[in-house]
Structure formats: C-alpha cells, structure tokens
Amino acid sequence: MSTKQKKVVEIRTSPHLKKAISVEQIMRNVVYALLPVCAWSVYQFGISVLALILVTTLTCILTESLFCKLSNRPNSVGDFSIVITGLLLALTLPPGFPLWMAAVAGFVAVGLGKSLFGGLGYNVMNPALVGRAFVQAAFPVAITTWTPGFAAGRFVEFIPSTLALPFMSPVDTSDWVTQKAVDGFTGATPLALQKFEKVTVDSIDLLTGAVAGSAGETSALLIFVCGLYLAFRKMMDWRIPAAIFAGVFIVCMPLNLYNPALFPTPLFMILSGGLMLGAMFMATDMVVSPMTPRGVWLYGLVIGVLTVLIRLFGGLTEGVMYAILVANALSPLIASVSQPRIYGARKEETES
Amino acid sequence: MGLFNLFRRSKTFRHGVHPVAHKEQTAHLAIRRLPFAPKIVVPLSQHTGAPAVALVKPGQEVVRGEPIAEAAGFVSVPMHAPVTGVVRAVDALVPTAAGPKTPAIIIETYEAATQAVLYGLDQDMEQMSQQELVEAVQKSGMVGLGGAAFPSHVKLMPPDGKVIETLIINGCECEPYLTCDHRVMLEQTDSMIAGIRAILRATGAKRAIIGVEDNKLDAVSAIREKLPDDGVISCEAVETKYPQGAEKMLIKSLLGKEVPSGGLPADIGIAVYNVGTMAQLGELIPRSRGLIERVVTVSGPGVEKPGNYLVPIGTPLRFLMEQVGSTSEANEVIIGGPMMGMTVASLEVPVTKGVSGVVVLEKEAEDQQDRPVYPCIKCGACLDACPINLNPSMLGQLASVRQYEVMESDFHLNDCFECGCCSYVCPSNIPLTQYFRIAKAINRETRAQAA
Q: Given CB atoms, is A287 within the 8 Å cutoff of chain B?
C-alpha cells in the first residue's frame, strides 16, 4: 500500500476472527433435525397432521411478523427460531386436533410466549409449550382426544375433528375411530393405560411409535436419533437429556423395585409420552435453559424428577410439559446458584 | 462441549477454542533479514512502565547498537539505536498501534554505513552474580517479546518473600498465523538455551520447562536434542489450543497450578518468559548488547511475500508493507495475532519491541465479513470457551445495560484477560470481549475520578 493508493483501512478491536457458525445456522439445523420426526408423523397419521404442522407453523410466522411490525422491530422470521416453535407445537398436539384451535395455540405460543418478552433470546419459557399449556387449559377435551395411526385412507381424508369450524366444538371422533381403527384401539395413550389400568405397553411399540399419542411424540427412537444429530453437531447440549433420563431413573427405579405392579420401569417412563421429544428438543431450548455446567445437570434432573412425580402421583397422565415449564421458570435461579468457579479463585474468598 | 474432549492426548487446560491456525503460510520459511528503512522511528515508550529518557540530541550521529535512551526507573528499559545514522528528532509525536501519539526518536539511516554493531564488550555469563545479571538484562533493553512487552528484568526480582522456583518458557504461539517463535526455536535453539541458563541463575529457579504446542513437534525434538544432560531444563508438548500461550493457561497445563485471581505467577513461585526473549538474551548478554531487532511474522491473505523477517526495531509499517507487498484486497493490518492484536489506523506506526507479527487480512475472508448481531440465545458457547470460567453471556447482558460495577463485583470482570474466545464462538456475533474492554476502561476511569 503506497501513498498513491488511498485505501480504507478497517479499524476494529480484537478478536479479528469469527467462528463460522451463526444463530441462523443453529436454528436451521434444529429444523432439519425435526423434519424426519414430522415426516414420520405425517406418514403415521396422514394429511391431518400435515395440515396441523402447516397451520401452526404459518400462524407462528404470521404472529411473529405482526408483533415485529407492532413493536417496530425488524422482522425476525428469518432466524428460523420461529419455525422451530411452529413445528414443535404441532408435534405436541393430538393428530386430530381442530385446526382453528391449533391456530390459537400458535398465536398464544408466539405472542404470549415469545414476542411480548422481546423476541428471540428474551423469552422465559419455551414458546411451544406455553402455547400447548394454553390450549390444554382452554380445550381440555380436544387435547386429550387421540386417534389411531396407520388408518386406511389417511392420506386422502382428514380426521373429522381436524376440520371443525372456528369457535365450534369438534365433532365426536369415536364413530370414526371405531370405523377405522384396528382392533382394540381404545384411544388411550400408553401412559393412561399404565396409570389407570396398569397395562404396560411393549417397549418396541414405544420405540417405533405404534401407539396412541400426540402427533410427533410417538416414535421415541426416531426422536432420539434426530436429537443425536444435533448433539454431534454441537448445536444441542447433550447433558440436558442425559440429566433428564438420570432424573427419571433416580425416582423410577426405587419405586419400580418397591412395587413393580404399581410403578412402571424407568425404561417405560423414558420411552413413553412426550418425554423423548421434550428432553431432546424442548428442554434443550437454549434460550430457556441454564448455561452453567452444574446448572445444566441440575435443570435436567429437576425436569426428570418432576415429570415422574406428576405422571405417577398427579392428576394428569402426562407431566413433561409442566415439568419443563417449571424448570424454565427456575432456570435463572439455577443459574445464579451454579455460577462456575473461576480460574484462580481464592479459597478463603466467598462468592463475592 | 466435553463429549469429544474425553480423549485428550497432550497436557492442556480446560475450555479454549480451536481457530484455523493458518501457520502453513510461514512455518517453513526461515528467518530472513529485512532491509533497513531510510527512516527509523523509536518510540520512547514501547514497554509497560515509565517511558525511557532520550540521551541523544537532534543532529547527533549514532552507531548501530549505541544506547540512545536510558531507563527512567526500575520498571523501564533503555533503547538502543537500531541503525547507524543521524538523529533527526528526539520528541517527535508518532502514532502507535494502541491509538494515542507518543514521543519518539527519529533516526535517518546512513545508506552507505556497514550497519555493523560495534557496541558492547564480551562478558562471561557464568561469572556474573545474580545482581549483575539483573542489571545486564535491564541494560539490554529486553522486554517480553511475546507481545506483552513487560520489562524482563522486573520479573527476575520477585516481590519480597516470594521465591521463583520454576521457570516456564512459553513456546506455544497459539495465535493463528504467527510462526516467529516456531522459527526461533528451530534456528536459535542454542541461544535460547543459553538465555534460559542465565535466567535460571538470575532467579535461582530450580528448573525450567519449555512448553510448546503439539503442532510444532519438530521444535520439540530440536530443543530436546540440544538440552543439557543435567535435566534442569525440560521441554513438554501441550495441546494445540487457543489461548494455550496465555501464561495462566500454560501454567495450568504444565504444572496443574492456578495463579490466584488478581495475583501474579510469582505468587506461586513461577516466572514465565517467551522463547524469543530467551533467545535474544542468550545472544545479547554475552556481548552486553542491546535489543535492536526482532523476528516478526508477516502473514495473512493480504500479504504477497509472507515470511518471518528479522526487522530492526522502529521500522515503519509502511516500509515493511512495501517490502513484502500487499494485495489489492488487503483492508486490515493487525499488529500481533488476529485474536488479541490491534488494528492500526496508520501505516506510520513503527514495529516496536512487543510486535510479534503483522497480519494483513482481506476484505472477502470468510471470518471477516460483517454478520448481523442477534440477541443472546443463551447457548452457553461462551461459557464453554472461556479459559477463566467466567460467564461472558451474563457479563455481556450486564454490559448492554451498563452495569459495569456489578460486572466487576459479582462476575469477576477483572479476571478476564481479553483472549477473545467468547467473541470468537458467539453465534449471535455479540462483541463480548469488546464490551468487557470498554467496561474495564470505564471502571478504571470511575475509580480514578473517585480517588
């Protein structure tokens, strides 16, 4: 560079290098990891689930855009985090969930769960679960109405309840279920069967997803594999699911040994219901989980223990959602009690 | 994140990052001498501590190696003429990499001069007492050549009650692009060992450990071959990881000890020196000469002839860049390495004693492009990168609401040594290190005002 060439020189402060990975990349990879789960769900339950996924995702995107516009923020749909919320929300809903209710869930999830707090990075709880908790309270019947998978003609016709008109109660699906279902379908999830009838479903069925349940939480194996992909790309903290499984094990194992007839095995607990999806994709939501190494383990243990307690001793059959929401709320507290010990900290010095 | 770090080979510390090293550009290139610039600029303050005091007057002729400024106190070092020439000014204000202008001696080089160093007497290091050695080190104008530029002789005199038991010789060179220490270890092994022996005597330390990153195993074997048999000096490979070359990290890797928060390595009986410093001391002390040149890595995508150059102290960057050539895309000149170095605003900035490298980056480099800043998504990548175990995410959030005092009192801001790992890994592209630097500066100012 001689004096003849006038050039603009960049002035920055160190570091002058950046690792080539961005928020957008992380979020996009979570979406990639969720797509197989969605695909399996669509294969299992047909076009109703496809419509459900599209409706929640679209509602979430539109809500985010609306709130960005209202609060004069640049539109943040491009960071893909909102797509994750939409997909996860759909996967937690029953396959025949009325679409208009799904839209309500999507609006609440993003509006109340995320945008009101200031958008990406500022929310306190997992938005998808906030949406689901809202519809669980608002539409208790619809959200516990399960329909069988692998029904004949599932790719050409909707489950009747899917197309319920807005603000109308969905039609009763029991007739449709008896007409379509394979023999013995009771509409009860494995957890309900276990809780009320003490029937434990085979682990193999839980792994492949040949059971009743929410759209995306039936094949534990597939969800686990997709989660592993994220863990290996270092876009998900493997310690959280590990801690959750450990928490479940710690509570479940003694109970099961004490009375196997009354209490299920830890393996059944881990594979059934929404635990796998919750552990792999929702508890690991970076924004709402603690960051400190000890905090991460504590957070996972809290979720695992709470889930089992709610499932076994609470009024509900499923406890993952509330366990995660409670742990989300606790996460700042967990973070503040688990600050890491810094290099060279003096012993006599208390946490100043 | 731990999952893959379970199978570690070399000694190391926890956390840290793995930036692309880019050392292949210059690692194989032997040290070459750079021509003398027509004008040499020697700032009086190139080191930590009091600026030196000029001994020369404008118009005076100086011989290469002659003292031109003397130390102003204990924490200060003298300057020596890097070229034979005539002094043009003794208090000219020149720009520095750090920003503010600083007084400097300007020497016009005699083009016809032989530039032989005619200064200095031979002396036998083995005969010198501890005190004489410390004085000799100060007289040589030696500072830490790794980049900190802290006067070397000060570290030889630990505070009362502290004893230096172990010397750690830092040959990690963890910054990307830089290879000058690597070349020094390969080419000046004997001087380096001589320097270490002198410092061992001066401090009374019982042993010295040379720590080298395991991407420079050729240097490790070259050093081990020439080590004396008494076993006082040893050479260890440590994991290639940034910031392995930070003294706190290297101490942890090699000895498993931690420097107390807010303290110095001397508090746990350790002194850390750079390999380049040792090589220069081993070269200069026996001849009682001063530090007038140093090895500088000039590298980066924006340089046409990258290499390791022996550069006279005071060579302006403009002259250096003309000699090595720069590409038309070059847009950022960094003094030091890209992780902790400073960009210069003017090419009039001279090479000083603490400059280990000049890295020129290009506009289109992938890791150079401006990326949008997202809010913190609490991914925790910075916590897994911070070698000091701080919580950069929390510190960053506090900085954005200007809670600088809380950062210091509750979140150990002053333990941050600005290695840049947190900014490097942040997927949201939040300039964390930069925030912390500002926070520290503001806290210093507030304290100064209160006092």
A: yes
